[in-house]
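Good day; I would like, with your permission, to put a structural problem before you. What I wish to show you is a protein chain and, alongside it, a tokenised description of its three-dimensional fold. Please examine both parts with care and let me know of anything in them that strikes you as inconsistent. Thank you for your consideration; the sequence and its tokens are set out here:

***
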Amino acid sequence: MTLMASARIALRALAANPLRSALTALGVIIGVAAVVTTISIGTGARASVQTQIAVLGTNLLTVIPGRVSSAGGISQGAGTAQTLTLEDAHSISESLGEVEAVTAELSRPAQVVAGPYNDATTVSGVTPTFPQVRNWQPVEGEFFGEQEMRSRARVALVGKSVKDTLFPDAEPVGQRIRINRVTFTVIGVMESKGSSAFSDRDDVVFIPLSAAQKRLFGVDFVRAIYVKVRDQGRMEQAMGRVQALLTARHQISEGGEPDFFIRNQADVAQAFQGVTRTITTLLAGIAAVSLIVGGIGIMNIMLVSVTERTREIGIRKAVGATRHTILIQFLVEAVTLSVAGGVIGILLAIGASRLISTLAGWPTIITPWAILMAFGFSAGVGIFFGLYPAQRAASLDPIVALRYE
């Protein structure tokens, strides 16, 4: 008997009990759908991180203030101190040859009003080198320069989300907005950087750092200093020199704890990739347990099928069916159940991934290798768990099988 004939017999046997066949394949369906969906979420998260890191640039150092400790000695976390100044940024830019450009930033939430519209957004005071350092350019108008910085000019550039909220029916350039009751003139619109499930990078207004410090917030410190290094191969050297320079400027004694932290963007990217990869592997492993459970279900049902069809097996052997023919028939039934469950599970995973992207805003990517892996794994489950029932059917004695009631 050919393989095609065995397959036709197997399909007829499965079609004779459609509900039982569907329930048997359910474990594989759930397992494959869970594995593929989990992998798609993890792959999408890694791609999103890579995109964001590429936008910022991997040759970027971020300097943030140190911790603030309460009277009880409880630390409030990195970035809570007020130890960095614009002069620190100027010193890094002027003293280190490895550095291409430096910008300082002070960001705080604020209420922005334009005519009848208002938006609770983030106002970010930056220096004129911000577009060069952060790779973030205006698409309308121009970024402000040193003259606006020195004069504390009341000029602003808005992100795409702010533009859509405050100026839904008008061009923003040349319009006036009020930030915490201080009037600014919009001179440009920044390019869109997109949003994720956790934040909207376009929901921001940029103004000169000097104006943010003196006209809005009344402070003389900065929240962060961004250092763009000329060559990625000199990142460690530049990081060490920035550390030494700021340590000397802040008069930190040898062995003392620095009042600032330096983060290497490449290290951050690598850490994020490692975390998302580990989480994806862990969740996929947990989801794969469903496949094993589904495989056990297939084996149980196939054993029941062998028992129910013992007399049929005896008749087929009596008329000339070989042990190999019986083995192939029952093995094809198990693999068909498993593969059909795998195909349905893949289709459910594609739908679930798209639904997650639409409703939750999480990036998901279903790669061909994930589909092939799930398909191959489901077929492997069918072969592994279907082999024992198939061997049991093939080893039945025809005389004993014919006498079975």
Q: What stands out?
A: The radius of gyration is 33 Å. The chain has two domains: 3-52+271-402, 84-258. The CA atoms of residues 44 and 389 lie 40 Å apart. Residues 265-308 form the longest helix (44 residues).
